[in-house]
């Protein structure tokens, strides 16, 4: 998950620079994210959001910080606000949103976010693979074992060397 933070922090900084915003709060928040000072980053992003509730970059940064602080409800809310306010719809954001939902026992909602993430053009092969595994877990958690088996079968065809998936297939056969 840490690999996402660097990428998302870079995206947040790029967005900040492109908007030409004179407020340094978001930029400082991004720096704290990169330093893994998530509490400090969250405080700065919250200040930026208080100044401008429609600041998508501040909302995204707040979501990242809250995810790292294991405040999954707060992270999900911040990510949703970022998207509602014109923030970039990226595979990484959708994956994080799905992961938040999984932590909050909202598997059906997580499935929606994973699907959206898989549809995004910016999804790397590695991220697509991760989201496909996450999707299988969400189907299992929601109790839809048939869909989980079907998705896993397709996954194993595409990634035959994934030992974790092979073990998962064995487990699902018992269900």
Automatic annotation (TrEMBL):
<protein>
    <recommendedName>
        <fullName>Tetratricopeptide repeat protein</fullName>
    </recommendedName>
</protein>
<dbReference type="InterPro" id="IPR019734">
    <property type="entry name" value="TPR_rpt"/>
</dbReference>
<dbReference type="Pfam" id="PF13181">
    <property type="entry name" value="TPR_8"/>
</dbReference>
<dbReference type="InterPro" id="IPR011990">
    <property type="entry name" value="TPR-like_helical_dom_sf"/>
</dbReference>
<keyword id="KW-0802">TPR repeat</keyword>
<dbReference type="Pfam" id="PF13432">
    <property type="entry name" value="TPR_16"/>
</dbReference>
<dbReference type="Pfam" id="PF13174">
    <property type="entry name" value="TPR_6"/>
</dbReference>
<feature type="repeat" description="TPR">
    <location>
        <begin position="56"/>
        <end position="89"/>
    </location>
</feature>
């Amino acid at each position: 998950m840490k690999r996402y933070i660097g990428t998302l922090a870079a995206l947040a900084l790029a967005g900040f620079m492109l908007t030409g915003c004179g407020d340094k709060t978001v930029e400082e928040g991004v720096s704290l994210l990169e330093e893994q000072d998530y509490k400090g980053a969250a405080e700065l992003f919250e200040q930026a959001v208080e100044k401008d509730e429609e600041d998508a970059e501040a909302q995204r940064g707040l979501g990242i910080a809250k995810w790292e602080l294991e405040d999954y409800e707060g992270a999900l809310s911040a990510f949703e606000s970022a998207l509602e306010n014109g923030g970039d719809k990226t595979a990484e954001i959708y994956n994080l949103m799905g992961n938040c939902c999984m932590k909050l026992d909202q598997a059906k909602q997580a499935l929606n976010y994973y699907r959206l993430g898989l549809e995004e053009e910016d999804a790397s092969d590695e991220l697509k693979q991760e989201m496909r595994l996450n999707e299988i877990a969400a189907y299992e958690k929601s109790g839809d074992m048939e869909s989980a088996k079907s998705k896993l079968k397709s996954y194993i065809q595409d990634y035959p060397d994934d030992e974790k998936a092979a073990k998962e297939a064995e487990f699902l056969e018992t269900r």
